[in-house]
Amino acid sequence: MAMQFVDLHSHSTASDGTLAPAAVVRLAKERGLSALALTDHDTIGGIEEAAAEAAKIGLDFLPGIEISCDYPPGTMHILGYGVDPKSPVLTEMTRQLIDGRDDRNPKIIVKLQELNVAITMEEVEREAGPPASAGGSKPVIGRPHIAAILVRKGYVNSIKQAFNEYLAPGGKAYFDKERLTSKQALSMIRESGGLPVLAHAFQLRTENDAQLETIVKNLLDEGLAGIEVMHSDHDAAWIEKCTRLADRHGLVKTGGSDFHGGNKKDIDLGHAAGRRIPRAFYDALVARLESAKKAG
Ligand code: AMP
Ligand code: ZN
Ligand code: FE
Ligand code: FE
Q: What is the pLDDT of residues 20-45, one digit of tens each?
């Protein structure tokens, strides 16, 4: 049989992507993929719509979520695969994280206004769009929505520049948000029936392999199940590094593009830094999920 490909890391309008959940699913099919995981930031608001579309058009689908953890040196994101959208633990966790955003986002806007940028919270909410379905949850608002407005109004030339000048740490309107510890995030993903996977280890900005190994070992103690090996930020050396780490510690290997539609124009669904993601990653993840369920 011909080689099959998948994408296990993608964002929709339920968070800061620009395609609706069903549209991401249809694009996956168009790109010739056989399976997709939707992993919006801090929400499972897009899962129902995506799962229904996937069933309709015949694409294997895995519910997912991406959680930002407390990691002072930089960015630590944990993907949760196979979480039960009806889990009360998950509902409570996402509510708390969205509260943290509702607290941060207006601070960014006030600061931008002080810098004479013409922008309001209403515009940001409009940028994020309406709920995916009538009566569905409101989109989770992230910095890319603010960045898109800054680009459109000509304050910056690109999303990248919006982050560098204003929204990233060190930027003129940077504010951090309330985060979970990795321990909290991992245990909540486990409790809601999911498997926690370390996303884009490159973004940890570790200084050497030993430091990366220490972080992974700590996460293992907290319940880590896998490492995202292929990602748009991972070159051959990072794929190799993450593969060896995963194999050494018996972790599942995953891969995804981190597709955001028009908010990250250089990323295409089904492609991670020019490479396609093998179906074997999806199959191994599903097998691990099934054995975790049996083990209870
Ligand atoms: P937030 O959820 O508001 O913390 O924003 C996180 C989103 O911003 C994710 O989609 C990131 O990929 C994106 N992001 C973070 N830093 C940058 C950056 N320097 N340039 C472009 N996008 C970024
Ligand atoms: Zn995002
Ligand atoms: Fe991420
Ligand atoms: Fe992501």
A: 999 999 999 999 999 999 999 999 99
Write down the pLDDT at residue 135.
75
Please tell me if the CB atom of residue 261 comes closer than 6 angstroms to any atom of ligand 1: no
> In sequence order, what are the residues at sequence separation of 6 or more whose Cβ sits closer than 8 angstroms to the Cβ of residue 12?
19, 20, 21, 23, 24, 38, 40, 46, 50, 132
Contact 130, 145 (CB under 8 A): no
Report whether residue 17 contacts ligand 1, using a CB cutoff of 6 Å: no
Which atom of ligand 1 is nearest to 16's Cα?
10
Instruction: Order the strands of the 60-69 sheet from edge to edge.
Output: 252-255, 226-230, 195-198, 76-81, 60-69, 35-38, 5-7, 275-278, 271-272
Residue nearest to atom 21 of ligand 1 (CA): 160
pTM of the model: 0.96
